């Protein structure tokens, strides 16, 4: 009998009875007030009159007027470079103990994003809220006695200027609370291995000793890890070695494109729960099984703003024009794309995280990630967001009965004409011309702007297929395997030329 599991499940149920659902908009106003109060004496707070904002009866509105938008480059050039140089009290009191390294999907030199003690606590608190939400998923009591495999970047953080650096998943794993360490796998020793291939081999070797009930990590790397474990032990599916695997917590990217290839590795269905953890903070998680949308964490040190995702507000590099209007949580509407802007306990202020979201339920503050501001395909007026591209790829999977876990594309000029040039990651043998026609027809039906573009400047669609491993090697070519690396779905022409050269050598 699962005595411990029943005890934990009972505690979660009791927490549900004690919990009072707060008003998300009111929680957000309180978060902003606390952020301003804490940072009022920093150099940033003095420069933008936080004391004055705290006395205002229209604090949220005046905050938007007083503080400009910042992307990473603007925040670093004007403020964070002084933190990197060792100065105190710049955008948040004191100095951060950590810096999250993030090269995102651009492949450029790593960003160094401050992670304060307050942000570490914020991430931990959001994780606890997510655990408490498991009470909504009707999991059996014995699930709460199983171990959890968290696959991220190495926890062997590098010391630099009296701070520790690493990817956010490594920083988070290195701060796991003591009471959770008995459940956490692969454990401290293996998690510290920097080389991803070596770390996964050790996981494969130790796999029979563990009773894994849940997985957590970016889908592409989780899939690759599961495949390595299966190959090492000559298994047909992962449930042959981890029969009690019941939950997968996805994060960082949309799970939809990976669903078919992920399920092919399983012996039975499991519960998939989406989360939204970025280098800048833990934004949202799926709170209930009736939807795959995620609830924003509105009471935990992150203040959210939402800029309507319209061409007149977006510059060519994906940043916002200075006069772009932003909305509070009380002002948004469902079904509209918004650029997400955040202010946080790590000293990020009106910061563009680079994602676009849409609300599925405003009252519940539930969202879906719809794309990236820099990867919105609009070179010839087609106005395709990443979620539309994901839908098109899933259409291919169903139509041709294939698996396409990875893809990228570019609006590429060939002999003076623009084409959407796709690379699909699949081992299936399908005629590229048929794939191109199917993509084209689906997008014409799904997107009015794409249909208009196809009648004017967009000449057509071209498709090439390569093994999914090529995408993994592209992401891992600079020792980035297994971390917060997200394959860029849309590339500019210069980046696409680099990609095609890489594919020519690898394939």
Automatic annotation (TrEMBL):
TM segment ranges: none
Domain annotation GH3 middle: ranges: 297-362
Residue span, GH3 C-terminal domain: 388-493
InterPro entries per the UniProt record, alphabetical: GH3, GH3_C, GH3_M
Organism: Pseudozobellia thermophila
A family per Pfam: GH3_M
Protein name: GH3 auxin-responsive promoter
GO molecular function: acid-amino acid ligase activity
GO cellular component: cytoplasm
């Amino acid at each position: 009998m699962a005595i411990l599991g029943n005890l934990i499940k009972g505690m979660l149920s009791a927490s549900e009875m004690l919990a009072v659902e707060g008003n998300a908009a009111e929680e957000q106003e309180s978060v902003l007030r606390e952020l301003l109060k804490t940072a009022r004496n920093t150099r940033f707070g003095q420069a933008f009159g936080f004391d004055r904002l705290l006395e205002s009866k229209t604090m949220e509105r005046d905050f938007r007027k007083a503080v400009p938008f910042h992307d990473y480059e603007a925040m670093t050039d004007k403020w964070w470079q002084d933190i990197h140089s060792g100065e105190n009290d710049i955008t948040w009191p004191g100095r951060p103990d950590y810096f999250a390294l993030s090269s995102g999907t651009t492949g450029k030199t790593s960003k160094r994003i401050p992670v304060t003690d307050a942000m570490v606590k914020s991430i931990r608190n959001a994780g606890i809220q997510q655990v408490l939400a498991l009470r909504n998923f009707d999991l059996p009591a014995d699930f709460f006695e199983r171990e959890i495999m968290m696959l991220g970047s190495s926890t062997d953080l590098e010391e630099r200027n009296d701070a520790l650096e690493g990817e956010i998943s490594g920083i988070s794993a290195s701060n796991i609370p003591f009471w959770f360490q008995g459940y956490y796998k692969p454990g401290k020793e293996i998690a510290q291995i920097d080389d991803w291939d070596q770390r996964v081999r050790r996981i494969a070797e130790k796999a029979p000793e563990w009773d894994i009930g849940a997985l957590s990590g970016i889908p592409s790397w989780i899939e690759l890890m599961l495949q390595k474990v299966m190959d090492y032990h000559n298994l047909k599916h992962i449930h042959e070695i981890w029969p009690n695997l019941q939950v997968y917590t996805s994060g960082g990217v949309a799970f939809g494109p990976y669903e078919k290839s992920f399920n092919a590795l399983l012996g039975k269905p499991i519960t998939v729960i989406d989360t939204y953890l970025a280098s800048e903070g833990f934004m949202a998680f799926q709170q209930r099984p009736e939807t795959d949308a995620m609830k924003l964490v509105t009471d935990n040190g992150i203040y959210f703003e939402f800029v309507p995702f319209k061409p007149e507000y977006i510059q060519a590099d994906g940043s916002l024009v200075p006069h772009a209007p932003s909305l509070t949580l009380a002002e948004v509407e469902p079904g509209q794309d918004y650029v997400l802007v955040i202010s946080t306990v790590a000293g990020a202020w009106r910061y563009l995280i680079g994602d676009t979201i849409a609300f599925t339920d405003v009252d519940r503050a539930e969202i879906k990630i719809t794309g990236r501001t820099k990867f919105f395909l609009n070179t010839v007026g087609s106005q395709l967001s990443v979620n539309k591209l994901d839908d098109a790829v899933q259409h291919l999977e169903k139509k041709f009965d294939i698996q396409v876990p990875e893809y990228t594309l570019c609006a590429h000029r060939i002999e003076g004409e623009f084409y959407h040039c796709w690379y699909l990651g699949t081992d299936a043998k399908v005629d590229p011309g048929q794939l191109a026609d199917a993509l084209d027809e689906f997008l014409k039906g799904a997107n009015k702007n794409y249909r208009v573009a196809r009648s004017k400047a967009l000449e057509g669609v071209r498709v090439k297929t390569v093994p999914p491993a090529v995408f993994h090697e592209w992401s891992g070519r600079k020792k980035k395997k297994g971390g917060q690396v997200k394959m860029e779905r849309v590339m500019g022409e210069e980046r696409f030329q680099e990609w095609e050269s890489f594919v020519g050598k690898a394939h």
